[in-house]
Amino acid sequence: MNGRAHGLGARHTPWHWGQHLAIAAAYGAGYEIARHLSFPQWMLTSGLRLAALLLLPVRYWPALALGEGLPLLEDAAANGRDMGLPWAISAAVPMVVLWMAALKPLRRYWPVIDERGGVRLPMILVAALATAVITSVATLLTALAAILNTPTAEWPDPATGPMGYFLAYALGSYLGALTLTPTILALRERFLNLRGQGLTTARIVGSPLFKDVVAWLLPVLAALVWVGLTTHDDMLRQIARLALLLPVLGMAWRHGWHGTAMGGMAASIALALEAALASPGLLAEANTIRVEAVLAMVISGALLVGHRAPVARAVPSGRRA
Questions:
Q1: Which parts of the chain have pLDDT scores under 50?
Q2: Residue 269's domain spans which residues?
């Protein structure tokens, strides 16, 4: 009995609470940055949230709820009088808390890391899809609470309707998860493979993956974004958007799923940037959303195919970072 009490008390030392507060502060800062860079069909918050829930031990999950919940509570308190109490209650609930209900059993029965130390990418995609549905439903319910509070209010784009917004929010959450989560997991795996060998700037800069990103991935994507923004031909603009998929496939071919993760993140950011500059409204135009859907499918498929490739292609022994 004394041993159990001593162990229980040891878990609640100042160091223990300090860890939780540090995680809450770091996650909260990252969440605020991601939230200000996100829009409905491209939610970077989903990628940050999914990576945190997959990598952090469950005992630290309350810290994530705290870090995400404080800014939401502030917004709900500031706007609750205008939007109504139902909206304020719904808006104050951190999305990470809703995600926990889906990810806890998923992590219990299907761990992120397999027996060989590799990442279970099928599990990542299932988690991203499940949480995208949760995000879409919760976001629509929050918006509906605000609309019902004001009889004259309506959807920002009545022609789109609730189903259109549901699909846009689901796509935005899924693509946002694919933008950040695989890259974070890939970098984690590469760093772990270099444990004990020394992680230096020269080793990172000299890696084939880094060289390909700098030498041709980023320049090609930048050129395609420039074409999409400067042309007045709708057909050429759409071709430039679809061409963003080609570098993703090239990176997948050369570097396995690690290349897919990096290429997918870069292509997703490029498409989001082009969409934000070309149509700054709440939702991007229909052609952009179609390309985003295709990009999400291509990244998902390339991750699964690259996951089957030999590990040596993605991280050769000690010479790549």
A1: 1-10, 311-321
A2: 194-321
